[in-house]
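Quarterly update from the structural biology core.
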Amino acid sequence: MADPTPAKTVSSVPSPSPTEDSTFTFTDGASLPEGTDIGWGEKLSRDTGWKKDDSRSQPGRFAYDNAADTCTATFQLFQLSSTAGMSGLDDRQASDLLVWQTLGMTATGASDRGFDGRFFLNELGGSFVEGRQFSVTINDMGLFSAARAFVAADRGLTLLVSCEGTDIGEVAHEVLSKAAILIDLP
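Predicted structure, tokenized:
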């Protein structure tokens, strides 16, 4: 008889390996000038180990499946003002909320369960952007959610990686190492 209790592991996933410690912090986000453009930069589209999934892609959202079809990485960019619960939050709090909304969960106690992480800034290497992350594996299904909110620019970015039968930590690290948040000042 199978054990009715699923095996659950909650862990932190390493952020991209630093080459310098120049980080755009949550506090820095409050000083972004009006007209700042925020977006995703990624290299999965040029990686033979990943293929774009057009059936799940739409404006502001694009998805990739790994070659083995065991993992999916979904990037999303949207206006924070169109997202419930964002009123009055700072960048860190809004980022926590995005992590949980991406997983389809409520954010009660989110700051206690999530952890700090980093995205590359503008290029893949050199500088970083603070973000919030959460990772969990239940039985053989791994989920990793990472987010960064820019309240002053009214933009949010989320990354959701899901894997079945594959180490979520390794795959999330790979995806993070091939993605960057782009900040274009006016």
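DSSP finds four helices and eleven strands in the chain.
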